[in-house]
Specification:
Shape: elongated
Largest sheet: 2 strands, antiparallel
Number of strands: 2
Number of helices: 1
Length: 56
């Protein structure tokens, strides 16, 4: 189950933007979290599409 991100992110012109400030020292951590979430979501999508649903 996912939570609401309304007001925290925007997606315009094929660009995902954060609507909040991120400290410089936290940018790499945030980047890696977003990357890991994207990889997980893509993996989940293609496993479902192939008929091999992942168990949560």
């Amino acid at each position: 189950m996912s939570g609401s991100l309304k007001g925290l992110l925007s997606f315009e012109n094929d660009t995902l933007k954060l609507i909040f400030e991120v400290e410089k020292e936290d940018e790499e951590i945030l980047f890696n979290w977003i990357k890991e979430i994207g990889i997980y979501r893509l993996h989940y999508y293609f496993e479902e599409k192939a008929g091999n649903p992942l168990v949560h």
